[in-house]
Design a protein that fits this description.
The protein is an alpha/beta fold and 319 residues long. The protein folds into 2 domains: 5-126 and 272-278, NAD(P)-binding Rossmann-like Domain (Rossmann fold, 3-Layer(aba) Sandwich); 131-254 and 292-307, Dihydrodipicolinate Reductase, domain 2, CATH 3.30.360. The chain has helices at residues 14-26, 40-50, 59-63, 80-89, 104-117, 131-140, 175-191, 262-276, 284-318; strands at 5-10, 30-36, 54-56, 70-73, 93-97, 121-124, 145-155, 196-203, 209-217, 223-229, 231-242, 245-250. The strands form 2 sheets. Strands 3-2-1-4-5-6 form a 6-stranded parallel sheet, sandwiched between helices. Helix 1 (14-26) packs across helix 8 (262-276). The relative contact order is 0.15. Bound molecules: NADP nicotinamide-adenine-dinucleotide phosphate.
Length: 319
């Protein structure tokens, strides 16, 4: 392929409109070719805003377009597996939004499909491509990290965003999947795979977790405390404590265009891998391992809420 990678976008997601399409326009080795939506007027409007030449009437039509090389998939989390499998089947490379899937089993199936079809699949963990994060992780590599505290939260006002998939269990909503995936990815990047996992969560009326706090223990004695929330003030932090000092970062996950655009760097790295036939810059094994930890956190929080319900029942009976 001597030209750049030609991209198609499935859906008119906020993140496509605000982050990925501007990044694609600026990226080397990549160009936006087509947009598809369940509502063609929305696709036309988004294509016009970003100068995308082609609009398809639906996702299947875009996947049938032989000139689309790679697909960006920013759909609600419950649709990542299905549309990734369909895109791979259609011969496309896929950059799928975070979290890669609802759980590790789905992610393993998607990885096997990518291998089977000989196409690249990568989770769009954009903050990993910000040079400041790479430098931070490199600077901590020689230290003996003892404690990581990380948080990512904001307030999702159900009245202001009715129907938002983050509050709908059937679409893969909840704080753990939405922002907890960044926290677990960061903990694994800095500390490796946890030996122990415990967690508590608070669920809202729809059943999704609105807040989740996890504690991870690592075999070398390091520990991490991670807080994900959809019901708190806008809040992001990273505190890494080692034997010789403390490193703090504000907004470690969404330091957009400050001065680098991590979305652009991610798209360029992925497109270069497509053009060179190389592996995806973020290996699928990492995304699968993140989902394995998210699965353990979910199981721990579930077990605790069941235990709490039992204890509450005993308390009520005794009162
Ligand atoms: N990396 C980042 O910085 C970042 C930031 C935000 C979100 N994300 C991830 O990107 C994905 C999308 O997030 P978002 O907040 O941008 O989503 P969003 O604005 O709610 O958009 C999701 C899109 O999915 C399509 N869709 C298909 N079936 C749907 C259904 N049943 N219900 C709702 N939408 C449906 C819709 O497009 P059409 O109606 O046009 O077909 C919709 O515009 C999520 O996986 C999220 O975790 C990543």
């Amino acid at each position: 392929m001597s030209r750049g990678v030609r991209w198609g976008i499935l859906g008119t997601a906020w993140v496509a409109d605000r982050a990925l399409l501007p990044a694609l326009r600026a990226a080397r080795g990549a160009e936006p070719l087509a947009v598809a939506s369940r509502t063609p007027a929305r696709a036309r409007a988004m294509a016009a805003r970003h100068g995308v030449p082609r609009v398809h009437a639906g996702y299947e039509d875009l996947l049938a377009d032989p000139e689309v090389d790679a697909v960006y998939l920013p759909l609600p989390n419950s649709l990542h597996r299905e549309w990734t499998l369909r895109a791979l089947e259609a011969g496309k490379h896929v950059l799928c939004e975070k979290p890669l899937a609802l759980d590790a089993a789905e992610a393993r199936e998607m990885a096997a499909a990518a291998r089977g079809h000989g196409r690249l699949l990568m989770e769009a963990v954009m903050y990993r491509f910000h040079p400041a994060m790479g430098e931070l992780v490199a600077s901590l590599a020689g230290t003996r990290l003892r404690f990581l505290q990380a948080a990512f939260g904001f307030r999702l006002d159900a009245a202001a965003v009715p129907g938002n998939y983050r509050l709908r269990p059937e679409l893969g909503g909840g704080a753990l999947l939405d922002v907890g995936c960044y926290l677990v990815d960061l903990a694994r990047w800095l500390l490796g795979e946890p030996a122990e996992v415990d967690a508590v969560w608070h669920r809202g009326p729809s059943g999704v977790d609105l807040s989740c706090t996890a504690v991870l223990g690592f075999s070398d004695g390091a520990q991490a405390a991670l807080h994900a929330s959809l019901e708190c003030a806008e809040h992001q932090e990273l505190v890494a404590v080692h034997g010789g000092g403390v490193v703090r970062r504000d907004r470690p996950f969404t330091a957009w265009r400050d001065p680098h655009d991590p979305y652009q760097l991610m798209v360029e790295a992925f497109s270069a891998a497509v053009l060179d036939g190389g592996p995806p810059p973020l290996p699928l094994e990492s995304s699968i391992a993140t989902l394995e930890v998210l699965d353990r956190i979910r199981a721990a929080a579930e077990a605790r809420s069941k235990g709490r319900a039992r204890t509450d029942g005993v308390g009520a009976a005794g009162a």
